[in-house]
Amino acid sequence: MIKNISIALAVTLLAVMGPAAKADSKTSQVFYRTAKIDGLDIFYREAGPKDAPVVLLLHGFPTSSHMFRDLIPKLADKYHLIAPDYPGYGSSSSPSVGEFDYSFDNLAKVVEKLTEQISLNKYSIYLMDFGAPIGFRIAAKHPERVQTLIIQNGNAYEEGLDNDFWKPVKVYWKDRSKENGDKLRSVLTIDATKWQYLNGVRNPETISPDTWEHVQPHLDRPGNQEIQLSLFYSYGSNPPLYPQWQEYFRKYQPPTLIVWGKNDAIFPAAGAYPYKRDLKNLDFHLFDTGHFALEEDGTEITTLIRSFLDKQTGK
Fold this sequence. Notes:
The protein has twelve helices and eight strands. The protein is globular, with a radius of gyration of 21 Å. The chain has helices at 2-27, 71-75, 104-117, 131-141, 167-174, 178-182, 190-198, 210-219, 224-234, 242-252, 275-278, 293-313, and strands at residues 30-37, 40-47, 54-58, 80-84, 123-127, 146-151, 256-261, 282-287.
């Protein structure tokens, strides 16, 4: 008798839960797509309902859209996620420096053209590391398209570059010699890549080696070091634009969520606080972790993002 009741209960639960589980699986499905932009294959991850509010996820150095692999399915039930790989990164085309001008102006143009090609008319932007100067260029140019900003270790203030990591890079900005460039090649080694993921974290045993094991083979591709050196040099074009971006903050006041790894030695918390000067609608959070905060505090950050987006987009 008890056995029959248990079987009947199990069947009933499956009947109730089955469609929900199926629907949940469907909404969290991630698609891996490629668009042709100016002759380049630009890879991007996409998930979520097409008619849902859009979140454009812009990755940092030296990773790719892979950094959002866990975040995307966690938001895809209510949001439409787009995460591209820039030229020279991940699964996008990686032409040589002689074939493509690797500058932040050009990376921003590629991302902007991608959003237009796939008809993204309004979106929130998640900006991290290199993704910040790319996203801020787009936001300042098209403020009417940007609903909100989510900033994670992405700089727009001089205070954020006043640390030891940037000293040899700033020398390179002033003198683009081979000698100064060669000094930066150590940043492209496996030891440096692992350091970016592990430095400043509370517990290194929670950080998957899948991260640096995904990134390093891309950095080690023939010609890729020259690509990265070009972008290190081009990063010097960003500080002169900081006043323009800060004026965008003050004038348009985009609702902003900051979720920042405060132990980051590249973009420390000193670069997070100045946003408070210019943004009135600011939700500010520092996490006791390093550069890639999603790796250690992804669950907590996801909860904050959902709450923030739900409030700001009315979902």
